[in-house]
């Protein structure tokens, strides 16, 4: 299939997904996925599907693939194994699109936490273009017969991945988190957008903001007010259990914290933080933050800010990625193109 035909098929898939959201025909699949993994709430799944639909609009697909006009007929398809993370709904979708768009076959190892939505979308794709049926395979048990691998896991599984798949061309993504840098002059709209960066997917995923940098003496009141729209997290049992546990633990150990009622703000060094907790650190000069970001670059996925920090993205954009915003900044398409040139 030519690249232009692939773009047309992807665009048609986006329309079909939108149609299923509009007429309710996807409700059953969403219910099953949410029941299977309570962290993947209806709201989180709808947000993820909405991003899929937006990124399958033809102009965005064309913009994404414009740098790769030589994809057509470049090589015999290779099989790329993809080990998907299930931390957030459809977290492996970017890899799925990249492998198929590059003209390769994909062998998918699903996460137990996200094994409903991607198989369903793959079936929708095959119904639109039956020629893709031989390009999408789901691995049962151990994976065999593949040429390259893309894997996402935690620290322990990544050590296994790096050892076991060392002789394959590979992308092994490391655990990361995201941070926000504030200067105290943020508008209400910016703070509301930052709340999205913190609370979409209940803070999970490498794009979720888990740590804030604020100026010395910062008043968190305005941010806590802006985050009120996520108060419904109180109704999510898994989230509330985490909140109750961490609040009790901090109180028991007499650790100071800011009580946001449905979330906790804690002055702490780590970038990563538990569900329902956002760490923060204070600074006197912005250079202190830039030094920290530079020294910890390998642990940070993205930085959101209204300041003029290099490579920072605007508030509210952490989870609203484009097709070319590859997971953890590793250009998957370039990897696949180089793979084709080498094999």
Overview of the molecule:
- With 343 residues, the chain is α/β, with parallel strands linked by helices.
- The chain contains twelve helices and eleven strands.
- A six-stranded mixed β-sheet has the order 8-9-10-7-6-11, sandwiched between helices. A five-stranded parallel β-sheet has the order 3-2-1-4-5, with helices on both faces.
- Strand 8 and strand 9 form a beta hairpin.
- Helix 1 packs antiparallel against helix 3 (42-55).
- The two termini are 20 Å apart.
- The model has no long low-confidence stretch (mean pLDDT 93).
List the helices and strands and how they pair.
Blueprint: H1 3-23, H2 27-36, H3 42-55, H4 58-65, E1 79-83, H5 93-101, E2 105-109, H6 117-128, E3 136-138, E4 148-152, H7 155-164, E5 169-173, E6 177-181, H8 188-199, E7 209-215, H9 221-226, H10 237-252, E8 258-259, E9 264-267, E10 277-283, H11 286-295, E11 300-305, H12 332-342
Parallel strand pairs: 1-2, 1-4, 2-3, 4-5, 6-7, 6-11, 7-10, 9-10
Antiparallel strand pairs: 8-9
Helix pairs in contact: 1-3, 1-6
